[in-house]
Structures are given as C-alpha cells and as structure tokens.
Design brief:
Oligomer: single chain
Order of helices and strands: EEHHEEEEHHHEEHEHEHEEEEEEEHH
Strand order of the largest sheet: 8-7-9-15-10
Helix content: 25-40%
Bound molecules: ligand EPS
Strand content: 15-25%
C-alpha cells in the first residue's frame, strides 16, 4: 500500500486538478479544513493582483461520499477564476482571434529551457505550467494527506524565518501550540519585531520593482519512529523530503534539522543522546537531527527548512533575447507577486504531509482507517512507544 498524487493544470487555463490515490476508506474529512488551507496559501504580504481575482476552494469530484473517503482515487478540482479573462489566449480549442505569442524568456524561469526541450514557438506553452499557480493543486492534495495524518495524531505547521535580508530570532523547541496565531501575521512569522521589518522590506523593495526570496520551516509533531528506511536510498525519509521540497517552484535548498550548523561542529555537539525512563519511554534532550536519523523518523519533531529564490518575473525585467529574431530585449513583464515566501510555507506543509502520509501507508497498510489505527497501536506496543 502506498500513496501517490499527481496534478494537472495551467495557470490561466480553466482550472487545476489533483488526484490522490491510496488513502484508506472510512476517513472522515473536514470540508472547512480543506478550504482553510486553500485560503492560507493565498495569504501573505507581498502578493500581487491575481490573488484579488482568485478565491480558491476544493471541489471534490470523486472518492468521497457523505464526508468520508471511499478508498478510491480522490479527484479535486480548483477553478481558475482568472480564466474568464484568458479564454481566448488559453482556450483548449482553436479560436478565431489572433493570439499574441511570448518570445522573450525570463531569466530564472523555465521559459528558455522548456521552449528548447519541447519545441514550442510560444514561451506561454511553457510558463503556464511552470507557474507556481500549480501549488494550489498541491495544497489541495496535501490537505487530504493532512486529514489522514490528523486522524493518526500528527500535526504539521510552518513559519517564515527570513525574507530578503531580514531574519527572525531563532526559537528552538517549538510545539504545536506555538502556531495557533501564526496565520494572523502578514508574513507568517513568529517574531513580531522581524515581522515588522519584513513587511517594511517588502514595501521598500517592491517600490524598486524588486522581488524577494527567503526561508521557511515546516515542522511535524506526533510521528512514530521508523517512517522511511535506512535500507534503500529511495526509501530514506530525508531524501524523500528533500525531493518533495525542492520540487516546489523557486525552492533552491532544503535542510533537515540543524544541517548547516552541525556541519561546523565537533561530533560530540552534533548528535542527540539517547535516554529512557519508565514513564516517558525513549526520549532525547536535543533535536539537532530534526527528527530523522539513518533515513528514518526517530519520533522527535520533524524539522525541515527550505530556501526560496526571489521570484523570476520582475516588473523591471532583466535582459533576454527574442527567441525568434535573436535580438536582445527585456524579458517578459507580467503581473506578479513581490514575494510568496509566506505562501510557500503552506505548500511546504502540503509536500511534507504527502511525503509522511505515503510513509505511513507503506509502513502500516490497511484498507480502512481503523485498520491503520490498529496497526499503529500494535507497533507502538511492540516498541514501547509512550508518546
Ligand atoms: C505566478 C505569477 C502570478 C502569481 C501566480 C504565480 O500569476 P499571474 O501571472 O496570473 O499574475 O499570482 O500565483 C498564483 C496564481 C497562485 O495561485 O499562487 C508565476 O509566474 O509563477
């Protein structure tokens, strides 16, 4: 038993689709929680005009009946409201109108390599799918995975650590309760001082026609030890998480635990010593490993960070070359966001949720959610897990 998902859809096409296959039957879904995640992805200071047009919600087309999963593939649809403004340019069928092509690829985007690889004449045939609009479908799929994980006692949270040159104060030992109001922050940051500076920096650089990158952290609480495996490279949990995170548009780096800091420390200060007590069972006093050892969860909170580059659509475009005339010109200038680091945290939550849900399905199987819960209970009993 495994879990897989795929997405389809172009940014200004009729809509996005996600198909999630492998969730057990009998799982109760919270409709509001699904739409809440869709709305959370649309938030954040620094978003552009498109978010005033869209109001994303999850439309379930299969796999759910009267609020419970059937164990069959779940198809969800996220409509693109903006399509009504793009019907001629993005129509699946030929139109009578003359549709202007895009010939100036943006540095940092998929435009040029995609054009070369797929033999298109119009950059739009590449950029529409490369667009981070696709992350709305990932968040829809991730929200389903979160519902599954929630039934197992697992919760997933995220917060922003850095936007451009502004850093939040480091806060070790975060718990689920620390995230109760993170979405109320305009940049989803837990440090109020840094939050103000981040907002000011977005405003300052936006006026200069700049875009901003940054970093965010995703945490998962309530995991059992043993998700993933040390046995084969492709089963390692940290490897899977890295692939899942770097697959998000504009994410260029990922770390698990204190990775970059640990690299500079002696071994005696790099690991998490092992303790056992009758009342608590197994535990650690530190979590430098970020909850993963040897490619497996160790039962401590999972801590994953990701670095996002500044968005590559600039309102003051970089230099490029017309793909047809080979004449120099300014890259395509489109409506864009200044920064999407706060929203990227929600996408990170979705990708972590989908990765963890898959690991749970592989380890515990089960056709009905009660089978899954029973298998987890038996495992906890066998290893003496008391959390
Ligand atoms: C994006 C460009 C902008 C963003 C879009 C991602 O879209 P548009 O060109 O329509 O203004 O708003 O993000 C979304 C639509 C979304 O839902 O997140 C890009 O080029 O990646």
């Amino acid at each position: 038993m495994s879990l897989r998902f795929t997405t389809a859809g172009e940014s200004h096409g009729p809509g996005l689709v996600a198909i999630v296959e492998g969730l057990p039957a009998g799982l109760e879904l919270d409709r509001e929680a699904l739409d809440r995640d869709m709305a959370r992805r649309q938030l954040g200071h620094g978003r552009g005009g498109r978010m005033k047009i869209e109001s994303d919600s999850v439309e379930i087309r299969s796999g759910v009946r009267h609020g419970r999963t059937l164990g069959t593939p779940i198809a969800v649809l996220v409509a693109n409201r903006d399509y009504s403004n793009w019907e001629e340019r993005m129509n699946p069928w030929p139109v009578d109108a003359e549709v202007e092509q895009v010939h100036l690829p943006r540095p940092g985007h998929a435009d040029l390599a995609g054009l070369q690889k797929y033999g298109h004449a119009d950059v739009r045939n590449v950029l529409e799918r490369a667009s981070a609009r696709e992350t709305a479908a990932r968040v829809a799929a991730g929200a389903l995975a979160k519902e599954f994980l929630s039934a197992l006692g697992v919760s997933i949270h995220s917060h922003v650590l850095q936007i451009a040159g502004v850093h939040a104060a480091e806060r070790p030992e975060l718990g689920p309760e620390d995230f109760a109001s993170v979405d109320e922050s305009p940049v989803r940051c837990l440090d109020p001082d840094a939050e103000q500076k981040m907002v000011a920096e977005i405003n300052r650089l936006r006026k200069q026609n700049e875009t901003l990158g940054g970093t965010f952290e995703v945490l998962a609480f309530g995991l059992v030890p043993g998700l993933g495996s040390h046995i084969s490279w492709e089963e390692r949990l940290d490897g899977r998480l890295a692939q899942a995170m770097v697959s998000i548009q504009a994410i260029k780096g990922v770390s698990v635990g204190e990775a970059w800091d640990v690299a500079g420390r002696p071994g005696s200060e790099a690991h998490d010593e092992i303790f056992w007590e009758e009342r608590r069972g197994w535990y650690r006093e530190t979590n430098r490993a970020g909850g993963v050892e040897g490619g497996m969860s160790n039962g401590e909170p999972l801590v994953v960070r990701a670095a996002m580059k500044p968005l590559s659509t600039l309102t003051q475009p970089l230099r490029s070359v017309d793909v047809h005339t080979k004449q120099p010109g300014d890259a395509l200038k489109e409506r864009t966001d200044s920064t999407t680091v706060p929203a990227a945290g929600i996408v990170g939550e979705a990708m972590v949720a989908l990765t963890l849900a898959r690991c749970y399905r592989e380890k515990f199987g089960g056709d009905h959610i009660d089978d899954v819960l029973g298998a987890i209970d038996a495992y906890r009993e066998r290893i003496g897990w008391r959390r």
